[in-house]
Prior knowledge:
The complex is a heterodimer.
Chain A: H1 10-13, H2 22-30, H3 32-51, H4 62-119
Chain B: H1 3-13, H2 17-39, H3 42-59, H4 69-87, H5 111-130, H6 133-144, H7 149-156, H8 160-178, H9 180-189
Helix pairs in contact in B: 1-2, 2-3, 2-4, 2-6, 3-4, 4-7, 5-8, 6-8, 7-8, 8-9
Amino acid sequence: MRCEDLATLLPGLVDGSARADRRTARHVDSCLRCQAELVQYRKLLRTLHTLRTEVLEPAPGLLTDIFTRLEAAGEQSAVRSMLRGRRVAYVGALAAATAAAGAAGAIVLVTRNRRVRLAG
Amino acid sequence: MSDDLAGLVAAAKSGDREAFDGVVRATYTGAYTLAYRLTGNEEDARDVVQEAYLRAWKGIGRFRGDAAFTTWLYRITANCAATQLTRRARHRHDELDDEVDMTDTRPEIDPEARADISLLRRRLEDALSELPPRLRTVVVLRDVYDLPHEAIAAELGISEAAAKVRLHRARRRLRETMFPGRAADRGEDAHAV
Lengths: 120, 193
């Protein structure tokens, strides 16, 4: 087994996100170069972990921008909800008007039929 | 999660906007830091954070509390950053802000070790900025923010196996950039055992 065969495996071996078979493990145990590389990966992971506690300070104004965005979205949502409400009312009114017109038409027809029958 | 934050989150879940403003105040620098690390520039980071809080407010009713609130928020932030990076297909090479304080203030660390860590951090920051965004996202979420592979895969819309492949590639590229001599050795002097 050659060191270069392990190049893609070592970055996962360092934290157990990749598994080594027996042959690979034997190679790593006896290879100073691969062990040195593992040490570098451990250093890399430790340094990456230290970034976790570091907080970057944003330029002033971000908090205001976030609140403005939330506010704007809230207003849009309220307008949308109002329009939805109006649409429902409009459709309802239209349906009621259609129903009323239908009923009126039916009454006119029935009345006309009666008059025709009485005249006959 | 601190009791204060937990209380604010609980109130925000029931629709209290002022409580959510408190949540934002308590967490926005952390979210910004993550967004900056993922996007590599301030302008995108600011957009990502605003979008992330908007989505968080809309979806806070779905936060079940089985993970820390910040973990939930970071997943949303990562998702927004991925969207932003996809939108901005152009490649960026923005330099990191030189004024960012990289010193380690923990007193238990001796000056020599502190200098060593400081140097490694600077190298790491440079190496991270050179990574393609798709690799940087995975390594930052996994190795800096400790998100599980499964969560990373879900937020990026890739398989867990693909997330691991990207992670290992990212680590390899970072190591090669931070310790360049050793990478050259491997290519030239690989030996059989």
